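Inverse folding, one chain.
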């Protein structure tokens, strides 16, 4: 996967910008608040995803303007292709000139992974951040997974609604049975796919973390489902266990008015040298762990699509010592990478590649 050109119009603080990046490392540098992350954010939109900064579409349009556009030419599967995205009241996109609706369909044609400082929450926050990461990563390679998640969420919502009324309406027990059955059906699929994905991811991440830490530390990543099942690869077994769990927690759930068991409570355990990275990791260790997960995510995408996704690394070097920085730069050497930094000296060791200085939303020559 290679981005050949990127043209932005009225995107964030960028009035007009054209970049023709190289196929290896592209360094976007400049002072704070000049538009470096904005460029990565625009490239990320080509995957059909929402902003990695959690921005609403309207926030992407330059103040005072009505429409923002992102136009790209890229090479994938040996073919030159184009994506154009217009952001007005909503977002519309075209792939090779053909309307792409929904825009999320772009994910099958354009793949990237992004690391930004906000991804540290993957390590530092509660289980929800890790579930979201896992679910988004799975959905990127198995599009039908989004529908499975939606159906599970729907069944859960229905069960929660019934929980609140059941005290006064015992006839609702039949409904509860139906919703639990549905939640178990979809939950069993979620657990199987999460288990499979985390195992794959962990294989890559362990190797990358070994490299980042110069073999001085070891990371362990393990799916930690809230409902313990035996063999998670068996949907049938997961289904039976989940159904038992829902049934067994009814009294407690009725008194709390919410469902206390199921994959919406799962976590991914991340330990460094046997200790929880969330609770005991240093800042550098937490950052290294988050980066290892993101680079591992890229390897799983490559395994699935047969092509190396583009890496968008926002301010990845700060807080890492030189050895760790060197390993990362070396690991991504043959990928197309966009890396932002304020201080060019951090990446000067990379003599290859292209450099772009951004100032006030413009490319400086
Ligand atoms: N819709 C918008 N219209 C105009 N300007 C915007 C819009 N959204 C954001 N900006 C401005 O874009 C500027 C650059 O943002 P960006 O996050 O890309 O900076 P950066 O170069 O990555 O800085 P840092 O080094 O601090 O991370 C900010 O000053 C912000 O106020
Ligand atoms: Mg930035």
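Residues assigned per position:
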């Amino acid at each position: 996967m290679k981005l050949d050109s990127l043209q932005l119009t009225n995107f964030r603080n960028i009035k007009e910008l054209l970049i023709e990046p190289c196929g290896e490392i592209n360094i976007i540098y400049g002072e704070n608040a000049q538009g470096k992350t904005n460029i990565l954010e625009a490239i990320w939109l080509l995957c059909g995803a929402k902003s990695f900064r959690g921005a609403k579409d309207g926030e992407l349009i330059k103040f005072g303007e009505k429409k923002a556009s992102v136009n790209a030419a890229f090479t994938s599967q040996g073919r030159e292709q184009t994506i154009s995205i217009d952001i007005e009241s909503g977002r519309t996109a075209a792939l090779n000139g053909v309307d792409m609706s929904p825009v999320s369909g772009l994910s099958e044609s354009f793949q990237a992974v992004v690391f930004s400082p906000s991804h540290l929450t993957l390590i530092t926050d509660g289980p929800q951040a890790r579930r979201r990461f896992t679910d988004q990563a799975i959905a990127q390679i198995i599009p039908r997974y989004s529908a499975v998640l939606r159906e599970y969420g729907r069944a859960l919502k229905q069960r929660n609604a019934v929980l609140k009324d059941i005290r006064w309406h015992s006839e609702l027990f039949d409904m509860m049975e139906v919703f639990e059955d549905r939640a178990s059906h979809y939950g069993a699929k979620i657990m199987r796919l999460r288990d499979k994905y985390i195992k794959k991811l962990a294989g890559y991440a362990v190797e990358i973390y070994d490299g980042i830490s110069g073999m001085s530390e070891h990371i362990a990543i393990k799916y930690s489902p809230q409902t313990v099942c035996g063999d998670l690869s068996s949907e049938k077994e997961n289904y039976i266990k989940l159904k038992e769990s829902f049934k067994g927690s009814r009294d407690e759930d009725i008194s709390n008015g919410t469902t206390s068991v199921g994959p919406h409570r799962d976590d991914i355990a991340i330990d460094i040298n046997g200790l929880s990275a969330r609770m005991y990791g240093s800042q550098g260790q937490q950052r290294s762990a988050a980066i290892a997960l993101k680079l591992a995510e890229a390897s799983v995408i490559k395994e699935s699509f047969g092509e190396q996704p583009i890496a968008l690394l926002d301010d990845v070097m700060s807080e890492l010592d030189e050895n760790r920085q060197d390993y990362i730069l070396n690991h991504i050497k043959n990928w197309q990478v966009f890396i932002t930094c304020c201080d060019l000296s951090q990446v000067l060791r990379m003599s290859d590649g292209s450099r772009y200085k951004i100032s006030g939303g413009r490319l400086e020559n």
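The mean pLDDT is 94. The radius of gyration is 22 Å.
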